[in-house]
Specification:
CATH superfamily of the largest domain: PucR C-terminal helix-turn-helix domain
Strand content: 5-15%
Helix content: 55-70%
Number of domains: 2
Structural class: mainly alpha
Number of strands: 4
Radius of gyration: 19 Å
Largest sheet: 2 strands, antiparallel
Length: about 180
């Protein structure tokens, strides 16, 4: 374990955790008990110490953005703060939202993309979405399930709905700038 104080931050680089500990968050939860009040942000797990700077950059970006999510879990992973990081001007977070959410939804066809967009626009009211799309509510359910399988985000979950909204907006902006 490497520890360092950076201003008012305590930076920890933990090594040797197995993949299960990293995936289920048990290592983070254990480490969190040693920290004082305030947000705890974790960067992604990387394969070697030589890659630790990549994780640290994401964690620092997330640390700047965590104030935008007052009820963020403690600890929170940098990937869970992608929308806040993108809004704070992190181009890597914006790119990740576009690559992992906007592009796959766009590539899956107009019907799937339109269903997600309309569902979000009508505040998650399934029947209203179905009426606007002139389809059966079961069709909307099916498409939303497909979108969730594709992106890992469930439009019916408020947090995931925010991530989807920001990702789709970032994708539209990138297309308007000719970057996609």
């Amino acid at each position: 374990m490497l520890l360092g104080v950076q201003g008012t931050r305590l930076v920890v680089v933990a090594g040797g955790a197995d993949d299960d500990q990293a995936r289920d968050g048990s290592l983070l939860d254990t480490l969190a008990t040693a920290f004082g009040d305030g947000p705890i942000v974790a960067g992604p797990t990387v394969g070697s110490l030589a890659e630790a700077h990549l994780s640290a950059a994401e964690a620092l970006s997330a640390m700047r953005a965590v104030v935008a999510w007052p009820n963020a879990p403690r600890p929170v992973r940098s990937v869970d703060l992608l929308p806040e990081r993108a809004l704070a001007g992190d181009p890597a977070a914006e790119r990740q939202l576009i690559e992992e959410i906007a592009r796959p939804l766009t590539g899956a066809g107009a019907a799937l993309l339109e269903t997600v967009e309309v569902y979000l626009e009508v505040g998650g009211v399934l029947e209203m979405c179905a009426r606007q799309l002139f389809v059966h509510p079961n069709t909307v359910r099916y498409r939303l399930k497909k979108a969730a399988e594709l992106t890992g985000r469930n439009a019916a979950d408020p947090r995931d709905a925010l991530v989807l909204r920001i990702a789709l907006a970032a994708g539209r902006l990138a297309r308007a700038r000719g970057q996609w």
